[in-house]
Design goal:
This protein is mainly alpha-helical. The chain contains 13 helices and two strands, in the order αββαααααααααααα. The two termini are about 40 Å apart.
Length: about 300
């Protein structure tokens, strides 16, 4: 008797292929991350104390969460500032990454060197070089703050004379003050956008030129729709990387509570609230951006 496999529709086959691709991640998560996550929930509702045999946990319920939100003097400030800064930087990083990827996709002498230069921030944010960058930023904030504020005021007055909306001006000023961080975050998205641009079939551009389409029409009708799936990928990547990048003030503060002051339960509770905020933001971004993504069959 022959075993007959059920017939699958094309959509079911695509879904099955997707599950096969993500199955290594699912298996790895269950084997290596699921148990530590459960343990972190246990720490968040307990008070940890060290004993000669290791550590002991005393259940305190939501006391650690209440302490983080109502008693701790710095958590709420770091939490709000971190989320606002990331939400401001995401559009700037996406625009900058796509613009640079479009330029690097053109044919010109030294293109390989230019691509390597834009990838350097990934290397420069590691180890000792990252510490030097932090020191330089601290020097800037302590020694040249007045100069930076004066430059921002001059730029703001210049844009106001052009009768631009104040909201746009304020966003440009904030984004301009974060240029080093935007360049740092853009290295990987540039490569992703560049790979997407190079995958667009050249014959589509040729057909568009034959039909008399302008460069602007070609961009919105061909380039942008075909690259839009990578837009969602980059937004998710930038969001996650920004929330966990070296130098993140909130991550550093939570770490100082755990290893500096020994408040492990409170620090874990803060981490869980931070993780929940990241999850909510990713769901909103996935829903909003995903609705405008074009998937070519």
């Amino acid at each position: 008797m022959k075993l007959r496999l059920p017939r699958l529709s094309l959509t079911q086959k695509h879904n099955l292929a997707g599950y096969l691709w993500v199955s290594p991640f699912i298996v790895g998560f269950i084997l290596f991350f699921f148990a530590p996550m459960l343990q972190s929930f246990r720490f968040a509702v307990s008070e940890l104390s060290f004993t000669p045999d290791g550590y002991a946990l005393k259940h305190v319920g939501l006391k650690n969460f209440s302490y983080a939100l109502t008693v701790d003097p710095e958590f709420n400030q770091h939490f709000v500032e971190t989320i606002v800064a990331i939400l401001v930087n995401i559009p700037a990083v996406i625009l900058f990454s796509f613009f640079v990827a479009t330029v690097l996709n053109q044919s010109f002498k030294g293109r390989t060197l230019a691509r390597a230069i834009f990838f350097l921030p990934v290397v420069l944010t590691a180890g000792v070089l990252h510490e030097l960058e932090v020191e330089d930023l601290m020097y800037l904030t302590t020694q040249d703050r007045d100069r930076v504020m004066l430059s921002a005021a001059v730029v703001r007055d210049f844009f106001l004379d052009m009768s631009l909306p104040r909201a746009i001006i304020d966003y440009v000023i904030i984004a301009a003050s974060s240029i080093p961080r935007i360049v740092e975050y853009s290295a990987i998205p540039i490569l992703i956008f560049l790979a997407g641009l190079q995958s667009v079939p050249p014959d589509m551009y040729e057909c568009a030129r034959i039909e008399g389409a302008t460069g602007w029409e070609t961009f919105w009708k061909i380039t942008f729709p075909l690259v839009s799936p990578l837009l969602l990928t980059n937004v998710v990547f930038i969001t996650i990387y920004s929330f966990t990048a070296p130098g993140n003030a909130l991550v550093s503060y939570i770490s100082s509570l755990a290893w500096g002051r020994g408040i492990f339960g409170v620090s874990v509770a803060m981490s869980l609230m931070y993780f929940l905020a990241i999850g909510v933001i990713l769901l909103i971004i996935g829903f909003v951006v995903g609705r405008n993504v074009v998937y070519m069959e």
